[in-house]
Amino acid sequence: MKPLNILFLTAWYPNELAPLNGNFIQKHAEAVAEFCNVSVLLVCPKKGLKKHSLKVSKNKNLSEYLLYYPKINSKIPVVTAFLKLFFSIFYTFKGIKIIRKSLKKINIIHVNILTRLGVVALFYKIFRQIPYIITEHWTGYLSTRKEFKGDLKILFTKIAVRYASAVTVVSQNLKKAMEAQGLKNKNYKIVYNVIDTNIFNYKGIKKSGKIKEIIHITNFKDEHKNISGILRTVKQLSETRQDFKLNIVGIGENKITAAAFAHTLGIEKKFVSFLGRVETQQLASLIQNAQFLLMFSNYETFQIPVIESLACGVPVLTTKCGGILDHTGTEFGRVIEPKNEQQLIETINYMLDNASDFKPEKLRQYAENNYGKKKVALQFLNLYKDA
C-alpha cells in the first residue's frame, strides 16, 4: 500500500521571522513523515517584499513550503483587517495549488490552528472531496484567557470543527475548554505533543559540583510563564541558601525586561543566568545536568519542557495550570498552585534537597511510552485511515 499524502496547513511553524514558532507542530509533521508523505504549508506576511517569495526544503518524506507575501500597510483598521484576511487565504490557496502540482493527489488535509485554515480545508472537503482533521493547541479557548471572541470567528470555527473527520488536542483541559465554547465534534481525540527521546535521554551521570542547577524554559511572556514570580522567589531563596543557580533558556521580546528585573534584584549571574536560544542537543545536556525543571505557569494546554525533562530522567516542579501533570501523583516531581510564591519557595527548597530521590528510569519510561515519535505518529495514522 502506498503511503498517504498528507497536507499540513498551519498558522504556526518555524520560519525565518520566528525560528521557534510552532516547533511542536514541526515535530508532529516529522513524526507523521515516518509513515506518510507530508507537505507542510505556512503562509505569512513579511515586511519589505514587493511580491511573494516561496522557500521549499525537503528531507526524505517531509517537504516544507514557507510562502512569504508582502505585509499589509494601511492606516485604516477596517481595510487592514480585510486585506490581512484576504491575502492570507489567497496565498494559502496559491500554496496549495503549488503543492498539488507536486503531489498530484492529497489524501488528507491536517489543519493546525484554526480558524481560517479550517475554512480552507472545509472548501476542499466540499469541492474536492478531501477529508480533513484538526489539531488545536491554542490557549485562547481557556475560560481564564477569554480570547475566543468575535461572532464571525466563533461561527466559522464551529462549522470547521463540526465537519472535521476528527479533532485532536494536546490535553484533556483543552478538549473541555473547546467543548465549553460550543465547538462540537463526535471524534475528539487527545494526541500529545512529541519529543525526540533519542536526544532527550537519560545519561545517568550529572556534573559534580557544589552548585545545584535548576532549569527553566520560557518564552518570557510574564502573564503566561510568570517569570517575575520566579525571579522574586529566587531572590528570597538566595537570602537563606547559596548552593543553587537557575538557568533560564529561551527567547522572547520580554527577555530584556526580565533580565533587567533580575539585575535590579541583585541575582543576575550569581543566582540566575539567561542563556538565550540554545540548540536542541545543548538543551538536552542542560536538562540532564539539572537537579530539576522549574515551571511556574499561570495557564497551559501542554508543557513540552516537562516531557523533555522526564525523558532525561529529571523530575519537575510545575503548577496546576492545565498542563499534563495536573492529575498525576508525586512520582514525577511536585505540582503546586499557580502564583503561590510562598509555596514555590518551600517546594524549591524541597526539590534542591530531595531531587535525587526520584527514580530517573521511571520518569524516562513514562515519557518514552506516551510521547515518543512512533506512538504519536501511529495515532495520527489511524485517524487518517478512518477519515
Can you give a write-up of this model?
The protein is an alpha/beta fold. The protein folds into 2 domains: 5-194 and 372-386, Glycogen Phosphorylase B (Rossmann fold), CATH 3.40.50.2000; 212-370, Glycogen Phosphorylase B (Rossmann fold), CATH 3.40.50.2000. The chain has helices at 23-32, 77-103, 116-128, 151-162, 172-180, 222-225, 227-238, 255-265, 280-288, 304-311, 341-354, 360-371, 373-386; strands spanning 5-10, 37-46, 53-59, 62-70, 108-112, 132-136, 166-169, 188-190, 212-217, 244-249, 272-276, 292-294, 316-319, 333-336. The strands form 2 sheets. An 8-stranded mixed sheet has the order 3-4-2-1-5-6-7-8, with helices on both faces. Strands 11-10-9-12-13-14 form a 6-stranded parallel sheet, with helices on both faces. Helix 4 (151-162) links the parallel strand 6 (132-136) and strand 7 (166-169). Helix 1 crosses helix 13. The longest helix is centred in the N-terminal third of the chain and has 27 residues, at 77-103.
Which helices and strands appear, and what pairs or packs with what?
Layout: E1 5-10, H1 23-32, E2 37-46, E3 53-59, E4 62-70, H2 77-103, E5 108-112, H3 116-128, E6 132-136, H4 151-162, E7 166-169, H5 172-180, E8 188-190, E9 212-217, H6 222-225, H7 227-238, E10 244-249, H8 255-265, E11 272-276, H9 280-288, E12 292-294, H10 304-311, E13 316-319, E14 333-336, H11 341-354, H12 360-371, H13 373-386
Parallel strand pairs: 1-2, 1-5, 2-4, 5-6, 6-7, 7-8, 9-10, 9-12, 10-11, 12-13, 13-14
Antiparallel strand pairs: 3-4
Helix pairs in contact: 1-13, 3-4, 7-8, 7-11, 10-12
